[in-house]
Design brief:
Length: about 325
Amino acid sequence: MGKEINEFTETLLTRELLTDAQMKSIKQYDALGIFSLHNELRFLLYLGVLLFTSGIGTLVYKNIDSIGHVAVLCLLLLLIGIGFYFSFKKAKGFSKDEVLFDNPVYDYIVLLCTILSCVFIGYLQYQYQVFGYGLSSLVCSLVGFFCAYYFDNKSALSIGITGLATFIGISITPKALLENEIYNNPSLIYYGIALGGFLLLWAEYSERISLKKHFHLLFLTFALHLIGICSIAALFETYWYIFVFLLAATLYYFYKISYVIGSIFLFVFTVLYGYIGFNIILFKLIDFIDFSDFWQLLTILTPVYFIGSIFGFIRLIKHFNNEKS
């Protein structure tokens, strides 16, 4: 039995909320060493979906000349149809509250069908240009949102939001960040901030009308990353000082909301984006003011500043955990 659980059960026994017989039963059960494989099985199912869709993609790519485009589309459509048939059959219907399948396997069938639908739409657009320019991403996004709200699937919701970002031209991937796609295209900065603001407003509106309230954190996560990354990118633009206030207001909001909902994830990234933004502004001020006579002092203080920043970051995380516990 873990130390914390042992102390907790001992406290319950001391307060006479547990009997000696119940305490003995708890210790006997713990001695069996039984543990749940629930998370491990869900991870394997998720991994299986990714491997299957990757395998389908690889098979199509390597054998497209011999298989044929129509055959590939028919195969994808057949798989999607079978998956959605069982998903709709086992689904409990749309509800504003959280609704789960009786068997969690169907959550992964919905995810599989959503991914395959996006592959089908993308392939159809690439080969036959069925949709207008960029509309294929919007259609994929709509499919993701439908599956998310009807089947109560957070993974499908992530696909829907990602498709919406792709539709307006934003691709927030490690490759995109390394190649400075956002920083080299100022219009994407404004689009990203607008999309982040829209997701934030939708999250708050959904919370008020009690529409899938458990999606709230996911919307906030995407909104934080979009507004945070795009606002930091805007600090390198001509009118950078305007975005200082936007970044500060956004980070203050997420700082407060992370305490309200108890999300360490939101808190960490809020502090991280704030730290990056603060350093950019600090270096701009140093560059603006002539510190040529103090460069040696700044060189000495820089390591101290970064070490102090790490120490302060750790203290903030500990303080957050202590407050929530």
